[in-house]
Design goal:
Length: 213
């Protein structure tokens, strides 16, 4: 891991993908960067790549990152990004958060948002989603194959929602702080709203490692 990180420090992640990127993690994206590091380590060790897990794209207006004044050393910051991204259960994520607090202190708002994104990604993955994102004034959830009963439930909770059966996609107007004249939700409030929508429509998620019946 450290060999791969050092290599990326020297050459810059942007150079690996082409274009004039800064070389920082935001230049290539959090999940892609972590996957690149993992693949580099596997190649170095001569290991066969593990079965690729489906990516979960969370593209929502959330200010989520590790500020330089919270973790000042680049290598340590990337290590913490990796730990948060690689957590596959709530217990693993909680463990990473406890370690982060012990080492660097109480996290500021942007870090708390980053943890919330990682937690919501676990929720989305448990429902089989690969995409939760903003499209104009709407939120998109996909893929979602809704039987008639769950389509009725969706309409009951969100009358203005649209279900596209052919592409297994749900589109819902972006929520606001107030029905009239409110500001669009963002950050943790928006993540919590999205998680509640999924629970309302689909029921409780299946915990990681537990097969549904």
């Amino acid at each position: 891991m450290y060999v791969a990180m050092k290599d990326l420090e020297i050459r810059g992640a942007g150079n690996l993908l082409g274009g004039e990127q800064s070389g920082h993690i935001e230049g290539v994206g959090f999940d892609l960067y972590v996957r690149m590091v993992g693949e580099a380590v596997q190649q170095f060790k001569g290991e066969r790549p593990a079965e690729e897990e489906v990516d979960v794209k969370i593209d929502l207006p959330v200010d989520a990152h590790l500020p330089h004044d919270y973790i000042g050393v680049e290598r340590l910051r990337l290590e913490m990004y990796r730990k948060l991204a690689s957590a596959r259960t709530s217990a693993e994520l909680d463990e990473a958060v406890v370690e982060m607090r012990d080492r660097y202190g109480e996290p500021p708002a942007a870090v708390a948002n980053l943890v919330a994104v990682a937690r919501f990604r676990l929720v989305a993955r448990s429902y089989g989603l690969t995409d939760v994102s903003v499209q104009g004034k709407h939120l998109r959830f996909a893929p979602l194959a809704l039987p008639d009963s769950k389509q009725l439930r969706l309409k009951r909770y969100h009358p203005d929602s649209v279900y596209k059966h052919t592409v297994e996609q749900v589109s819902v107007p972006r929520p606001a702080t107030r029905r009239v004249g409110g500001e669009p939700l963002r950050d943790q409030a928006l993540l919590e709203w999205c998680a509640q929508l999924l629970k309302d429509v689909l029921g409780d998620p299946v915990p990681a490692g537990v097969s549904g019946t």
